[in-house]
UniProtKB/TrEMBL annotation:
GO cellular component: EMC complex
Stretches that traverse the bilayer: 43-61
Protein name per UniProt: Magnesium transporter
Domain of life: Eukaryota
Organism: Amniculicola lignicola CBS 123094
Biological processes per GO annotation: protein folding in endoplasmic reticulum
Topology of the protein relative to the lipid bilayer: Multi-pass membrane protein
Entry annotated with the keyword S-adenosyl-L-methionine: no
Amino acid sequence: MSFGGTVLNTVGVVFLTHAVYSTHEHTTTTPNTPLPLDITLELLFSILILTTGIVFTSPALKPIQWSKWAGQISQEGQHGEGKWTQEGEEILSEGDPFAFLGLDAGLGGKTEGRKGFWDVRGKRKEYAAWVKEGGK
């Protein structure tokens, strides 16, 4: 349907250009009169045709699969970006653009990365150890 969408886009742009030109001509010749109905309808028609053409030529939407993306990032680990510092060291990337938030820390024994969050599981373990020791 991309050929039909391209044709609709072309026709819509032609009608839109003509409507804009007609509006310009109308406002320069008669500045204080309202816009005629035929120019308004041509403008609305061109927008409708152009929008339909854009919808037909746009690629299909892809489903959002954050779990696959997050799993791939966690499996890749650190890797080089192909960029180097002035000292000649390679710049490494974790792969996760949201790693600075530390949202994955606290899971699987990692608790040092969550700044500003209270580690409930760690505090429960500390409390259980404190109770076993007799509360000293």
